[in-house]
Amino acid sequence: MMGLWFGLYVLASALLLAIRYRKSWQEGLLRLIVVVAIPIIGWLLPLFWPKRLYANAGHDFHDYMTKQHEEHKLHHVGIYSETESAKELNVIPIEEALLVSEHQDRRRVMIDLLKQDSVHYLEILQTAVRNEDTETSHYAVSAIMEVKRKLLLSIQDLSVQFENRKEDEYVVRAYAEVLKGFLRSGFLDERTVVKYQYTYIEVLNQMIKLSKQAEWAYKDKMETEINLGLFVVAESTSLHYLDQHPESEDAYLCLMKVYYLTRSSSKLNHTLEQLKQSPVRLSNHALTLVRFWSEGA
Protein backbone atom coordinates (compact mmCIF):
# COMPACT_ATOMS: atom_id res chain seq x y z
CA MET A 1 0.00 0.00 0.00
CA MET A 2 2.84 2.39 0.89
CA GLY A 3 4.46 1.64 -2.44
CA LEU A 4 1.28 2.65 -4.23
CA TRP A 5 1.05 5.94 -2.37
CA PHE A 6 4.73 6.66 -3.02
CA GLY A 7 4.24 5.90 -6.72
CA LEU A 8 1.30 8.31 -6.89
CA TYR A 9 3.38 10.93 -5.04
CA VAL A 10 6.25 10.57 -7.53
CA LEU A 11 3.86 10.74 -10.50
CA ALA A 12 2.07 13.82 -9.17
CA SER A 13 5.38 15.52 -8.39
CA ALA A 14 6.70 14.76 -11.86
CA LEU A 15 3.59 16.23 -13.49
CA LEU A 16 3.69 19.41 -11.40
CA LEU A 17 7.39 19.95 -12.05
CA ALA A 18 7.01 19.19 -15.77
CA ILE A 19 4.38 21.92 -16.01
CA ARG A 20 6.33 24.38 -13.86
CA TYR A 21 9.70 23.82 -15.55
CA ARG A 22 8.62 22.89 -19.05
CA LYS A 23 11.17 25.34 -20.48
CA SER A 24 14.05 23.80 -18.55
CA TRP A 25 13.81 20.04 -18.16
CA GLN A 26 17.25 19.90 -16.45
CA GLU A 27 16.04 22.19 -13.66
CA GLY A 28 12.81 20.24 -13.33
CA LEU A 29 14.71 16.95 -13.14
CA LEU A 30 16.96 18.31 -10.38
CA ARG A 31 13.95 19.29 -8.30
CA LEU A 32 12.24 15.96 -8.97
CA ILE A 33 15.30 14.14 -7.61
CA VAL A 34 15.13 16.28 -4.45
CA VAL A 35 11.41 15.73 -3.76
CA VAL A 36 11.72 11.99 -4.44
CA ALA A 37 14.78 11.64 -2.21
CA ILE A 38 13.11 13.69 0.55
CA PRO A 39 9.35 13.08 0.28
CA ILE A 40 7.10 16.02 1.25
CA ILE A 41 9.88 17.87 3.11
CA GLY A 42 11.74 18.31 -0.16
CA TRP A 43 9.05 20.74 -1.30
CA LEU A 44 9.83 23.00 1.65
CA LEU A 45 13.52 23.46 0.82
CA PRO A 46 14.86 26.85 -0.42
CA LEU A 47 15.00 25.28 -3.89
CA PHE A 48 11.24 25.81 -4.12
CA TRP A 49 10.99 29.22 -2.46
CA PRO A 50 9.55 32.09 -4.56
CA LYS A 51 12.24 33.76 -6.61
CA ARG A 52 11.84 37.09 -4.85
CA LEU A 53 12.17 35.49 -1.42
CA TYR A 54 15.07 33.39 -2.58
CA ALA A 55 16.78 36.46 -3.99
CA ASN A 56 16.37 38.25 -0.67
CA ALA A 57 17.73 35.24 1.17
CA GLY A 58 20.71 35.20 -1.16
CA HIS A 59 21.24 38.88 -0.56
CA ASP A 60 21.09 38.39 3.23
CA PHE A 61 23.50 35.49 2.98
CA HIS A 62 25.87 37.64 0.94
CA ASP A 63 25.67 40.41 3.56
CA TYR A 64 26.32 37.87 6.30
CA MET A 65 29.35 36.42 4.52
CA THR A 66 30.70 39.91 3.83
CA LYS A 67 30.37 40.75 7.51
CA GLN A 68 32.08 37.50 8.52
CA HIS A 69 34.91 38.23 6.10
CA GLU A 70 35.45 41.69 7.56
CA GLU A 71 35.41 40.32 11.10
CA HIS A 72 37.92 37.66 10.13
CA LYS A 73 40.14 40.30 8.56
CA LEU A 74 40.07 42.37 11.72
CA HIS A 75 40.79 39.31 13.84
CA HIS A 76 43.71 38.28 11.61
CA VAL A 77 45.40 41.68 11.81
CA GLY A 78 44.77 42.04 15.52
CA ILE A 79 42.03 41.02 17.88
CA TYR A 80 42.36 44.29 19.68
CA SER A 81 41.37 46.37 16.68
CA GLU A 82 38.67 48.89 17.44
CA THR A 83 35.33 47.16 16.83
CA GLU A 84 32.07 48.61 18.01
CA SER A 85 30.52 45.19 18.61
CA ALA A 86 32.94 44.68 21.49
CA LYS A 87 31.51 47.72 23.29
CA GLU A 88 27.90 46.58 23.32
CA LEU A 89 28.00 45.36 26.92
CA ASN A 90 27.35 47.97 29.56
CA VAL A 91 30.28 47.84 31.96
CA ILE A 92 28.55 49.29 35.03
CA PRO A 93 25.67 46.75 35.10
CA ILE A 94 28.23 43.95 34.74
CA GLU A 95 30.22 45.19 37.72
CA GLU A 96 27.06 45.63 39.76
CA ALA A 97 25.83 42.16 38.82
CA LEU A 98 29.06 40.59 40.05
CA LEU A 99 28.73 42.40 43.36
CA VAL A 100 25.06 42.33 44.30
CA SER A 101 23.26 39.69 42.25
CA GLU A 102 22.61 36.04 43.04
CA HIS A 103 25.20 33.43 42.10
CA GLN A 104 23.08 32.21 39.20
CA ASP A 105 22.86 35.74 37.79
CA ARG A 106 26.60 36.21 38.18
CA ARG A 107 27.24 33.05 36.21
CA ARG A 108 24.86 34.15 33.48
CA VAL A 109 26.65 37.51 33.25
CA MET A 110 30.01 35.75 32.92
CA ILE A 111 28.68 33.41 30.23
CA ASP A 112 27.36 36.42 28.29
CA LEU A 113 30.72 38.11 28.73
CA LEU A 114 32.54 35.06 27.37
CA LYS A 115 30.52 35.45 24.15
CA GLN A 116 31.95 38.94 23.71
CA ASP A 117 35.52 39.97 22.92
CA SER A 118 36.71 39.60 26.52
CA VAL A 119 39.87 41.63 25.95
CA HIS A 120 37.76 44.79 26.41
CA TYR A 121 36.69 43.68 29.90
CA LEU A 122 39.96 42.57 31.47
CA GLU A 123 39.52 44.70 34.58
CA ILE A 124 36.10 43.18 35.19
CA LEU A 125 37.41 39.67 34.59
CA GLN A 126 40.29 40.21 37.00
CA THR A 127 37.78 41.34 39.63
CA ALA A 128 35.58 38.34 38.89
CA VAL A 129 38.51 35.97 39.53
CA ARG A 130 38.23 36.90 43.20
CA ASN A 131 34.47 36.42 43.29
CA GLU A 132 33.18 34.34 46.18
CA ASP A 133 31.23 32.12 43.79
CA THR A 134 33.74 29.52 42.59
CA GLU A 135 31.94 28.89 39.31
CA THR A 136 31.92 32.60 38.45
CA SER A 137 35.62 32.72 39.34
CA HIS A 138 36.26 29.69 37.12
CA TYR A 139 34.54 31.36 34.15
CA ALA A 140 36.66 34.47 34.67
CA VAL A 141 39.92 32.50 34.81
CA SER A 142 38.96 30.65 31.63
CA ALA A 143 38.19 33.91 29.86
CA ILE A 144 41.48 35.50 30.96
CA MET A 145 43.50 32.51 29.76
CA GLU A 146 41.74 32.67 26.40
CA VAL A 147 42.43 36.40 26.11
CA LYS A 148 46.09 35.84 26.95
CA ARG A 149 46.35 33.12 24.32
CA LYS A 150 44.76 35.32 21.65
CA LEU A 151 46.92 38.32 22.54
CA LEU A 152 50.12 36.27 22.36
CA LEU A 153 49.17 34.84 18.97
CA SER A 154 48.27 38.29 17.68
CA ILE A 155 51.51 39.81 18.93
CA GLN A 156 53.56 37.08 17.29
CA ASP A 157 51.72 37.52 14.01
CA LEU A 158 51.78 41.32 14.05
CA SER A 159 55.44 41.59 15.05
CA VAL A 160 56.34 39.80 11.81
CA GLN A 161 53.91 41.92 9.80
CA PHE A 162 55.28 45.09 11.39
CA GLU A 163 58.85 44.27 10.43
CA ASN A 164 57.81 43.60 6.83
CA ARG A 165 55.18 46.32 6.43
CA LYS A 166 56.19 49.31 8.52
CA GLU A 167 54.61 51.68 6.03
CA ASP A 168 51.22 50.00 6.33
CA GLU A 169 49.24 52.22 8.70
CA TYR A 170 46.61 49.55 9.29
CA VAL A 171 49.19 47.00 10.46
CA VAL A 172 51.02 49.53 12.64
CA ARG A 173 47.78 50.70 14.27
CA ALA A 174 46.65 47.13 14.93
CA TYR A 175 50.02 46.17 16.43
CA ALA A 176 49.90 49.22 18.70
CA GLU A 177 46.42 48.34 19.91
CA VAL A 178 47.36 44.73 20.65
CA LEU A 179 50.46 45.82 22.55
CA LYS A 180 48.43 48.31 24.56
CA GLY A 181 45.94 45.61 25.50
CA PHE A 182 48.72 43.21 26.44
CA LEU A 183 50.47 45.78 28.63
CA ARG A 184 47.31 46.56 30.59
CA SER A 185 46.25 42.94 30.87
CA GLY A 186 48.17 42.18 34.06
CA PHE A 187 49.63 39.00 32.54
CA LEU A 188 53.25 40.15 32.52
CA ASP A 189 56.10 40.25 35.00
CA GLU A 190 58.04 43.48 35.48
CA ARG A 191 60.89 42.62 33.10
CA THR A 192 58.51 41.59 30.33
CA VAL A 193 56.46 44.75 30.82
CA VAL A 194 59.56 46.88 30.27
CA LYS A 195 60.44 44.91 27.14
CA TYR A 196 57.01 45.42 25.60
CA GLN A 197 56.91 49.08 26.66
CA TYR A 198 59.98 49.77 24.54
CA THR A 199 58.40 47.87 21.67
CA TYR A 200 55.21 49.88 22.13
CA ILE A 201 57.16 53.16 21.96
CA GLU A 202 58.82 52.05 18.73
CA VAL A 203 55.46 51.16 17.17
CA LEU A 204 53.85 54.42 18.35
CA ASN A 205 56.73 56.39 16.91
CA GLN A 206 56.11 54.73 13.56
CA MET A 207 52.39 55.47 13.90
CA ILE A 208 53.16 59.16 14.42
CA LYS A 209 55.34 59.18 11.30
CA LEU A 210 52.58 57.62 9.22
CA SER A 211 49.69 59.68 10.57
CA LYS A 212 50.16 63.11 12.07
CA GLN A 213 46.47 63.02 13.04
CA ALA A 214 46.89 60.07 15.41
CA GLU A 215 46.80 62.14 18.60
CA TRP A 216 46.31 59.07 20.77
CA ALA A 217 49.76 57.85 19.67
CA TYR A 218 51.49 60.97 21.01
CA LYS A 219 49.68 60.70 24.33
CA ASP A 220 50.29 56.96 24.78
CA LYS A 221 53.94 57.36 23.79
CA MET A 222 54.43 60.12 26.37
CA GLU A 223 52.71 58.09 29.10
CA THR A 224 54.83 55.01 28.34
CA GLU A 225 58.04 57.07 28.33
CA ILE A 226 57.11 58.51 31.73
CA ASN A 227 56.48 55.00 33.07
CA LEU A 228 59.98 54.06 31.93
CA GLY A 229 61.48 57.19 33.50
CA LEU A 230 62.43 58.64 30.09
CA PHE A 231 61.43 62.18 31.02
CA VAL A 232 63.63 63.96 28.48
CA VAL A 233 62.17 61.82 25.70
CA ALA A 234 58.67 62.35 27.10
CA GLU A 235 59.20 66.11 26.99
CA SER A 236 60.37 65.86 23.37
CA THR A 237 57.30 63.80 22.48
CA SER A 238 54.98 66.30 24.18
CA LEU A 239 56.61 69.27 22.46
CA HIS A 240 56.25 67.51 19.13
CA TYR A 241 52.62 66.80 19.97
CA LEU A 242 51.97 70.46 20.77
CA ASP A 243 53.77 71.58 17.62
CA GLN A 244 51.64 69.30 15.45
CA HIS A 245 48.37 69.92 17.34
CA PRO A 246 48.40 73.42 18.84
CA GLU A 247 44.59 73.31 18.90
CA SER A 248 44.48 70.28 21.21
CA GLU A 249 44.11 70.72 24.97
CA ASP A 250 45.60 67.25 25.50
CA ALA A 251 48.86 68.40 23.92
CA TYR A 252 49.20 71.14 26.54
CA LEU A 253 48.12 68.84 29.38
CA CYS A 254 50.67 66.20 28.38
CA LEU A 255 53.47 68.74 28.44
CA MET A 256 52.27 70.12 31.78
CA LYS A 257 52.25 66.60 33.22
CA VAL A 258 55.88 66.08 32.21
CA TYR A 259 56.89 69.39 33.79
CA TYR A 260 54.93 68.62 36.96
CA LEU A 261 56.63 65.23 37.36
CA THR A 262 60.07 66.72 36.70
CA ARG A 263 59.34 69.66 39.03
CA SER A 264 60.00 72.15 36.24
CA SER A 265 57.73 74.83 37.67
CA SER A 266 58.81 77.65 35.36
CA LYS A 267 58.20 75.53 32.27
CA LEU A 268 54.90 74.34 33.67
CA ASN A 269 53.74 77.92 34.29
CA HIS A 270 54.87 78.96 30.83
CA THR A 271 52.87 76.12 29.24
CA LEU A 272 49.90 77.01 31.43
CA GLU A 273 49.98 80.60 30.18
CA GLN A 274 50.23 79.36 26.60
CA LEU A 275 47.11 77.27 27.13
CA LYS A 276 45.19 80.15 28.73
CA GLN A 277 46.05 82.45 25.83
CA SER A 278 45.33 79.88 23.14
CA PRO A 279 41.99 79.73 21.29
CA VAL A 280 41.47 76.16 22.51
CA ARG A 281 38.00 75.56 23.94
CA LEU A 282 38.65 73.73 27.17
CA SER A 283 36.74 70.78 28.57
CA ASN A 284 35.60 70.71 32.20
CA HIS A 285 38.60 68.55 33.06
CA ALA A 286 41.05 70.99 31.49
CA LEU A 287 39.31 73.99 33.10
CA THR A 288 39.65 72.35 36.51
CA LEU A 289 43.39 71.86 35.98
CA VAL A 290 43.89 75.39 34.70
CA ARG A 291 42.11 76.85 37.75
CA PHE A 292 44.08 74.57 40.05
CA TRP A 293 47.46 75.64 38.72
CA SER A 294 46.44 79.28 38.27
CA GLU A 295 45.73 79.47 41.99
CA GLY A 296 49.32 78.48 42.64
CA ALA A 297 48.50 75.14 44.17
Integer-rounded radius of gyration = 30 Å
What are the segments in which pLDDT stays under 50 over at least 5 consecutive residues? 51-62, 71-92
Class by alpha and beta content: mainly alpha
Note the quaternary state here: single chain
Helical content class: over 70%
Q: Which H/E pattern describes the elements?
A: HHHHHHHHHHHHHH
- The total of helices stands at 14
How much strand content do the residues show? under 5%
* Total strands: 0
Shape: elongated
Q: On the 0-100 scale, what is the average pLDDT?
A: 74
Termini separation: 100 Å
Largest sheet, in brief, is:
none
What would you note in describing this structure?
The protein has 297 residues and is an all-alpha fold. It has a domain at 1-47. The chain is 74% helix and 0% strand. The chain contains 14 helices and no strands. α4 (91-100) runs antiparallel to α5, α6 packs antiparallel against α7 and α12 (249-261) runs antiparallel to α13. The model is unreliable at 51-62 and 71-92 (pLDDT under 50).
